[in-house]
Design goal:
The chain has 115 residues and is mainly alpha-helical. The chain has a single domain, classed as de novo design (two linked rop proteins). Helix 1 packs antiparallel against helix 3 and helix 1 runs antiparallel to helix 5. The two termini are 15 Å apart.
Length: 115
């Protein structure tokens, strides 16, 4: 694995931990896992079965962590920020730091910022 790829993976792992911390800080981290049927949704962001923070916790963070731990290929492109912005614009909470972490994840995956 090239040095750039290792740095990218390390940065993504750190950003995923930051994402978890932000979800916890906003009391959006769930203790109970949704049912398997809800997690098996084929809709973007599992919009039909999960709310956005649940999707982040139980699908996105888990899947990305698995890819990083197993050394599997990462997505070549990502655009989660628009969904995050849309979801949080109608909620009364300080989601700026959470959206900033999501934006950084998008930028790293899309290689718009260097490690």
């Amino acid at each position: 694995m090239h040095q750039f790829e290792q740095q990218k993976r390390q940065l993504l792992a750190r950003l995923l931990r930051e994402l978890e911390s932000e979800l916890l800080a906003l009391n959006l981290w769930q203790k109970n896992r949704p049912c398997e049927q809800a997690l098996a949704s084929v809709e973007p962001f599992a919009i039909d079965t999960l709310n956005f923070p649940e999707w982040l916790q139980f699908i996105f963070i888990e899947k990305m962590t698995q890819l990083l731990q197993l050394g599997l290929a990462l997505p070549s492109a990502m655009a989660i920020t628009p969904m995050a912005t849309e979801y949080f614009k109608v909620r009364v909470m300080d989601s700026g730091a959470l959206i900033a972490v999501i934006t950084r994840i998008d930028l790293v995956i899309n290689e718009k910022i260097k490690c």
